Amino acid sequence: MLAVKIIALCVLCFIWLSGCQGNRLSGSTSSFVTPVDPQASGRGLREERGVRLDCRPVNSSVETWIRELRAAGMGILKIGRTLGVGTSVVQRVRAAA
User: How would you class 90 by CB atoms within 10 Å of its CB: exposed for 0-12, middle for 13-18, buried for 19 or more?
Assistant: First the structure.
């Protein structure tokens, strides 16, 4: 009896997953789901609204501190932790210098 319930549960899970994945599990190439790049569609909406697509601006004093600490030989991770910014901010400022 327990084996029948487990098999039924597996079948239901497979059916649900195949529907969620756009029939990718069954190998079917025809699907009602059209693949859409979510970043591309969101990018178009942001451009229409006039929203900036690049990174948030960093305060000039933070940029100065990043340059000074980097010139002193401090690493990217330690600069980010010290100033409370992300490492990508430190990398961006370092690349712009």
Answer: buried
